[in-house]
Write a structure and sequence with these properties.
Layout lengths: L1 H20 L18 E6 L14 H10 L4 E3 L6 E3 L2 E6 L5 E6 L13 H12 L11 H7 L6 E8 L2 E6 L6 H5 L9 H7 L13 E7 L3 E6 L12 E6 L3 H10 L4 E2 L7 H5 L4 E5 L4 E7 L9 H10 L2 H8 L4 E3 L22 H10 L6 E6 L11 H13 L3 E6 L3 H9 L5 E7 L6 H8 L18 H12 L3 H18 L2 E7 L2 E5 L2 E2 L15 E2 L2
Parallel strand pairs: 1-10, 1-11, 15-16, 15-17
Antiparallel strand pairs: 2-3, 4-5, 5-7, 6-7, 8-9, 9-10, 11-19, 12-19, 13-17, 13-18, 14-18, 20-21
Helix pairs in contact: 1-7, 9-11, 14-15, 15-16
């Protein structure tokens, strides 16, 4: 314990030194010779962004930054996933749901001064959906997740006039509007993409309330208020995104005043924040799942009974008691109970080591086997202490004869290798993007999302019946019928057991008392345009 405290203290000192050299920490810096002060909101998380081109990232660390820089055609309400106007002000669809016409906001400019219009929207979508497009550089994973590959269900995007765009789909898609509001579909400046090419991920240009200033890898990203923003102007002059890997060190910086807000708070530190007169506790609405994916393409993990055995071997409640301080519930389905379509009739796998051993014996492994257990290097909302959780699972599996070696990599590599299917057992999770069951079950468990290099389905689970149900649910406009389809899919997934669904968490967030207007969103990231900082 003393060694850990000393290490954390040293980390804090070094971080403060970097902060002083960089952007002046959480203190206001002189804005000009006249003595005006800049308001700087310093926000800290555990990992750096993997990139700043929103369509080419899938991690919250990146999307937290891009959401400040980019606008989407539609947006979510501040306290729900209800769709509201964004860069599009009106929309209508054909009776068959295969054509959507959107009226765009006039007079909007990108940060580089170029105009936002229908041609810009068409450029972005053509870049994303067409593999032959000269600017289709990257994985575009989220596009494949939400629209079914390249070109997917979006057959054409037409600029009807300067401020009208029409989407022509090959089939109706119930969550189409909700998908358009996702942060990953931020609209970029076509001229900036043409100028920077493959380096665009380091030079993002959008229409959002903040514009990009600089990125010091693994240290900080700086954005500043965009004075010509079309909507309500940001209340702070700059946002600095700090990277502080250790949760405890991050909290120490918050207490010392060098940062203004943080995510990735250890649940055990919730009381510390509550009892600090200078801090405030915020809670993010729960719309997530933390899970252990089993790569169904790997040897013994192909066997259903082995996957079921692993489910019985993991003590979820003990993990919650040890690492979530009561701020989580055991999971049994691949989507949270807060969403419609959740099947509460599904019977989860009870913690039962004896049953696990029996299933292993039936599968031909009475003495167990050896495998690898991959653990994330960064804290996530659904998994605040991934290394410790991996160790707890390792001990549970050892009790039934399964010996595991814990493997980890830096965050960007961890994601890349997972999408390529290099793992055996893989700790991961998901925070919902749009409030629709499709965004969980289809993205994470449909067979179409097992393409190596862009896989959202990191269990590489393929069940034709499940896939048919999920695709039918996308096409169906009647929510009650969609509800029934998702519930049937959950029964089949539970039987096949490609995951150990672990937890649905309620992530705690900490900030200085001087910070106002920070409204944590269920999707896992939020804009900072309304955040203010008292003097």
């Amino acid at each position: 314990m003393k060694v850990k405290r000393l290490a954390a203290a040293l980390f804090l000192v070094l971080a403060m030194m970097v902060n002083i050299v960089g952007c002046g920490g959480g203190d206001n810096a002189a804005k000009d010779a006249g003595g005006d002060k800049e308001k700087i909101f310093v926000f800290a998380r555990s990992g750096d962004a993997s990139g700043l081109d929103p369509i080419n990232v899938t991690d919250g660390e990146s999307l937290y930054v891009t959401q400040q820089i980019f606008d989407t055609l539609l947006e979510y309400a501040e306290d729900s996933t209800d769709v509201e106007p964004g860069l599009a002000t009106e929309w209508e669809s054909s009776k068959d749901g295969k054509e959507w016409t959107l009226k765009l906001r006039e007079g909007v400019k990108f940060h580089d001064g170029t105009p936002f219009n229908a041609e810009a929207v068409k450029f972005n979508f053509d870049r994303w959906r067409d593999e032959k497009n000269p600017y289709h550089q990257g994985d575009f994973s989220y596009y494949t997740y939400m629209f079914g590959g390249f070109p997917g269900i979006i057959q054409d995007v037409a600029a009807v006039d300067e401020y009208t765009v029409k989407f022509v789909l090959t089939q109706s898609q119930a969550p189409f509007l909700a998908n358009l509001a996702m942060a990953t579909f931020g609209i970029s400046s076509p001229e900036a993409i043409k100028q920077h090419g493959e380096d665009y991920f380091k030079n993002p240009v959008g229409t959002g309330p903040f514009k990009f200033v600089k990125w010091e890898k693994d240290q900080q990203i700086v954005v500043e208020k965009y004075a010509e923003y079309w909507g309500a102007k940001a209340k702070v002059d700059k946002v600095v995104f700090r990277t502080i890997p250790d949760n405890s060190a991050r909290l120490m910086e918050l207490q010392s005043g060098t940062i203004d807000g943080m995510i990735g708070l250890n649940p055990d530190d919730v009381e510390t924040v509550k009892n600090d007169a200078n801090l405030q506790l915020l809670m993010r609405p729960s719309m997530n799942i933390g899970y252990l994916a089993m790569n169904t393409e790997k040897d013994f993990l192909k066997e259903q009974k082995i996957r079921q055995a692993i489910n019985h071997a993991v003590n979820k409640q003990a993990i919650i008691d040890a690492f979530y301080a009561g701020l989580a519930k055991p999971a049994k389905n691949p989507m949270p109970p807060s969403l419609w379509g959740y099947n509460d009739e599904v019977k989860g796998y009870e913690y039962d080591p004896a049953k696990a051993k029996a299933l292993l014996a039936e599968a031909g492994y009475p003495d167990g086997f050896e495998t690898t257990l991959w653990a994330m290097p960064v804290a996530r909302p659904y998994m605040p202490q991934p290394k410790e959780i991996a160790q707890a699972i390792q001990q549970d599996l050892a009790k039934v004869g399964i010996t595991t070696k814990i493997v980890t990599y830096d965050w960007e590599t961890y994601i890349e290798k997972g999408e390529n299917g290099e793992h055996d057992l893989y700790l991961f999770g998901w925070t919902g993007d749009n409030g629709d069951p499709d965004n969980f079950i289809y993205v994470l468990l449909d067979k179409s999302n097992t393409v190596k290099g862009t896989a959202g389905n990191v269990a590489f689970y393929k069940n034709d019946r499940v896939s048919s149900l999920l695709v039918d649910a996308q096409k169906e406009s009647d929510q009650s019928k969609r509800d029934a389809l998702y519930k049937e899919a959950q029964v089949l997934i539970n039987e096949d057991a490609p995951w150990v669904p672990l937890v649905h968490s309620t992530p705690p967030i900490a900030a200085k008392k001087s910070i106002s207007g920070w409204l944590p969103h269920a999707t896992g990231t939020e804009g900072f345009v309304g955040v203010d900082k008292a003097e």
